Amino acid sequence: MEQLTADDLASLDLTPAQMTEMGKAVMARAVANLAALPETPSRGDYTDIQATCRSMREGAPEKGVALDSLLDQLFDEWIPRSFTTTGSGYLAYIPGGGVYTAALADFITDSVNRYTGIWEGAPALVQLEANVLEWVRDWMCFPQTTRGVFTTGGSMAMFNAIACAREKLLGDDIRSGTLYVSSQSHHSIVKSAKLAGIAHDRVRTIDVDENFRIRTDDLEKAIVADRRAGLRPFMVFSNAGATNTGAVDPINAVADIAAGAGIWHHVDGAYGGFFHMVPELRLLLSGLPRADSLALDPHKALFLPYGTGLLLVRDGEALRALHSSTAGYLPDNQSEFYDPAQYGPELSRGFPGLRVWLTLKVFGAERYRAALKEKRELAVWAAEQIALIPGVVMDAPPQLSLFAFHLEGNGLDSLAAQNAATESLMHRITNRGQLMLSGAMAGERYLGRVCVLSFRTRRAQMELCVQQLAEETAGLLAEASVRARS
Ligand SMILES: *Cc1c(COP(=O)(O)O)cnc(C)c1O
User: Fold this and answer.
1) How many domains does the chain have?
2) Ligand 1 centroid vs 300 CA: distance in angstroms?
3) Which of 124, 359, 433, 455 is the most exposed place for a label (fewest CB within 10 A)?
4) The domain containing residue 43 runs over which residues?
5) Looking at the predicted structure, is the pLDDT value of residue 32 above 70?
């Protein structure tokens, strides 16, 4: 950059022409990146990645550098060396993809930089966020008393829910409260419990049945045992789609137990909750609307970019009682309109509502329902094909859009050998470059998984998935039986 005068130095403002030019440069790179997705490897090159990261360490820049050179490094060197989470072949973990309209909304959000922590700062913008929360409330068939809050993800939604249940049911007597999860519950629950003051020795992990669903008889026994021991059971979690296997707990049965015991029932719908948007699929999540609170991740099944979670609480006043506070420098709380800071721990915050609002308005709920339905159909179809591959044992057929399996065969007699072969299968598929798969330990067993939840994943990718799994499974089984004979 050219020499700046002392006056220029203190100004960080840009002219409209400069802003437009910089914006175009970014837009060109971002769109080119998306346009190249079909040819982009499913996982970037990780060769010497540690050395790369070490070589990137540097002090704070004293002088500015041209935006273009930074964009070159970002888009040519750093972004490619990652999981291609936007790709149509991303079937690992829980995908989502990241719809483009959300990026545009974020650009608007960040350039207008309005204050949405409190209603008064930008009433109409906050109203957009309130609208989205009400749409989601209705899709989940929650009552009018419901209030919610956008969070950065499912983990923070869970944390908020635990704090809310704890405050309402335990008050100051935190130490005697006990909380119930299944062995398939997401680890963020136990982590959030700790953040919310519920220590590990107050968390009960309930076994699951052969379908990875919480054993409700064990749950009831555990609650009774804790009561007898003078403790105060206050919260139970059920899965509306567990991360490892996609299992949906018997939500109605858990709701009955929770109601009988007077404890808070939280449904973890971070992966699967949005399937409730589709009326034909609601039966798969039967009982979900009975939850006291529900965690959802728009950055998964609403296909939004990372950083968008959501919590709904049936007793909206309980959420407000936890978070509502005042300060001398803030306007008085008002209650007619939604006021984000009264429902969550943050004051200054981004404006997560706009990316969800703009995207839902541009596409409409109809297209979302069609996309979600299609993802489930693709998963059901692929799982049927994959179950027919010799050597594949389907442990968890898709309840929503995720299924899990392992390999068995000649020479794969021990659990350890089956685990190693299944893990190897995941790596071999990923290394072929068009798809990315990840597995998970469920108890002692390593499960291969396929999760169909990127909006970009269509029939072609699932056909490829079936074909590659068949080829690589055949190869692995042949190698194992050669080893067994020698
Ligand atoms: C992803 C996920 C979480 C955690 O949500 P984050 O958005 O990653 O914080 C919790 N539970 C389930 C079932 C999930 O799939």
Assistant:
1) 3
2) 9
3) 124
4) 17-84
5) yes
